[in-house]
Design goal:
The protein is mainly alpha-helical and 162 residues long. 57% of the residues lie in helices and 4% in strands. It has helices at 22-43, 53-67, 83-92, 95-104, 107-113, 117-144; strands at 70-72, 78-80. The chain has a two-stranded antiparallel ribbon. Helix 1 (22-43) packs across helix 6.
Length: 162
Amino acid sequence: MSSAPSEVGLGVVEHRRPGLPLGARFYFAAIVAATLAAAVPLLTEVDTHTHRWTAFLVLSTCAALAQLFVVRTTRDQSYHTSVAFLIAGALLLPPELVVLMGVVQHIPEWLKHRYAWYIQSFNICNFTLDGLAAWGAAWLIMGHAPRWADRGRGQGQAGRLF
């Protein structure tokens, strides 16, 4: 008996680079670029006069806490309960706060799990784009809805696109 490893290489050498494969890097770059293109113009509009800060604080706090409660499946998939608060934010908040909500909801998860930077960055971009898409869909629907359907959004405005 020997304590030395007994595996013999058959001439097959696997060269793996750390990090993401090339295709994943392109996809990651495309998602980040799309998020920045959608979010940066909106973030310039955030100031103390932005409406609905209280709703943002409540919804983003709930989303951040809910992000910690994940339903995991056997096939390495996960479902986040924070989506409910993201949808509520898309219906109730202006788009610049929807962008911030996509970032804020991931902070406790990032601190707790310490995922790799590219995984968490992708998740932030993904949820931010999802929130903005939901906001845009709500904005389009509310623009064609009967007048009584607009009461919940306040001041009788269906919102603005950009």
